[in-house]
Amino acid sequence: xxxxxxxxxxxxxxxENNATLAVSLPGKAVCEDAVEDVQLVTCQVCxxxxxxxxxxTRICRETCHGIxxxxxxxxxLNVCTESAPHGVLSRLKCPIxxxxxxxxxxxxxxxxxxxxxxxxxxxTLFRERVEASCEMLCPECHRTTNILYxxxxxxxxxxxxxxxxxxxxxxxxxxxxxxVPDIVAACIRYCNHDLTADALLAYLARALDDEDIxxxxxxxxxxxxxxxxxxxxxxxMKRDSFKHTPCCDAEVCFVCKREGHHPGQPCATYLPxxxxxxxxxxxxxxxxKGDGCSSITCFCGHEFDWDVExxxxxxxxxxxxxxxPRHRPAFVAIATYLRHQAFRRKYAVLVIAQLPMFVLHxxxxxxxxxxxxxxxxxxxxTGLQACMARRRVIRxxxxxRASFQQLVVHHxxxxxxxxxxxxxxxxxxxxxxxxxxLFKALVVRSVTRRxxxxxxxxxxxxxxxxxxxxxxxxxxxxxxxxxxxxxxSRLHQAPWMAKVKAALSSxxxxxxxxxxxxxxxxxxxxxxxPQAVAGRQLRRIDLVMxxxxxxxSPWWGQTMATAVRxxxxxxxxxxxxxxxxxxxxxxxxxxxxxxxxxxxxxxxxA
Length: 606
Hints:
A 3-stranded antiparallel beta sheet has the order 11-12-13, with no helix packed on it. Strands 1-3 form a two-stranded antiparallel ribbon. A two-stranded antiparallel sheet has the order 2-4. It has helices at 70-83, 103-109, 116-131, 180-191, 197-208, 212-220, 226-237, 306-322, 328-350, 355-371, 376-429, 434-493, 497-527, 529-534, 537-549, 554-595, 600-605, and strands at 5-7, 20-21, 29-31, 33-34, 40-42, 49-51, 55-57, 67-69, 135-137, 144-146, 242-244, 251-253, 258-259, 278-279, 286-287, 295-297, 303-305. By secondary structure, it is mainly alpha-helical. Helix 1 (70-83) packs parallel to helix 3 (116-131) and helix 13 (497-527) runs parallel beside helix 16 (554-595). Helices cover 58% and strands 8% of the residues. This is RING-type domain-containing protein.
């Protein structure tokens, strides 16, 4: 049976145990082979799916969650190498969690990747740029020489060796066996960027005394990470900066990069005189800032405040200038005055303030030999015992007074009130007692006074409320009158007031004319309604037209015409009803004549 094949670029799904995976090359198809426990992971930079053995995980430490493929790590190292200045202590950081990264751990994690060769090449270039900060220029032949120790191989490095048994014997030879675990732990912390170079050197100086320089030199030869090696080397150079070039054996100061040695003079004496310049306290690199904020991160990874470092650098320069022969007398005079002031302050605090106590102790020391021999010893002991007894009595009296004040005096007033109340109650409660009548009269008088006082207070409050109500009513009336006057004045002053007055006068004239017409023509027209009803239809139409014609306005004409029509209709209804009643009477008479009187009841019922 022919085995299935897959082309490169075809999506591969995650498989279970005993799964098969197609391994392809660009432009070719390869038959599948049996592969067990294959896992795919996603690169957090390019988001491509790669095999777990080709990816780099736990990049900077065991708690790192970063996952990168070999190609992305190689590109990252290339960018770090190109951006790192030559000869400047630069720190390599994890591209995912941005924490310091040990190069030995990076090389170890990249050993299983397909791009391990490219990663190692870029790491070597980065190492060369960082280790260039340990170069020294010969002042005679002008040849640059790197005085840093040769780095070890990844297998012989101690960067990841926690157990002291894995360390080379040459590094831990002739050391105190009890301090070996602590020294190894401190070195591992330094390799993992958890400890600074100055802190490590201080610990080694305390632990090893005079053997710390030799131990550091051996340690530099077995440390793989370039940034850690160079940082520790520069820290040791600050303590012993006078070196000789290996080519011409010329004297050079490694810190200030000047020809010759200057024992007794600090390197700050030869600092350049620039106002806005700072010096990194870790790698001694001189920095000049163009713009930006005051938070600065050096190439070595050390973070500091720009203003603080500039002030410290200026202080160094000023100190050097003050120590120059020109300003030395003034500086010595100021220093002498400050020392004298400091001495006077210490003398006042430590000596003068203790004089009274010293005099007392001196007197007691002088009296002690005399007082402890008779007869002074007996009289002194007796007087001392009497004094102590008096003091004891005074203390007991003070304590008793305090307890008496707290337990007795504090409750005297309450107890007196209780006794008075009990006596008054017993005297009042006796039957036929004059105290009972007097007490009742006193209580009634007191209650009456309280009620009267309350009534007086209520009267004043009621009077005030009434006054407030009256004042409020007067104020509201005044306010309403003022509002009416204001509206009236605005109405008379309005520009449309003339038109309103003309319209009102026209309406009043029309109303008067209508009333006059109603009195003159209304009665005459309504009197002709019976004749119109009795007459012909033409007469009724003439009457309506007459009412409309003689009206003073169209509205009044319509009203009169409607009234005439209604009157004519009512008149006609009345005539029809009268005729019907006349017909009923005639029919009843005929019925009586034909049937007789006996049928009157039936007729009436019908």
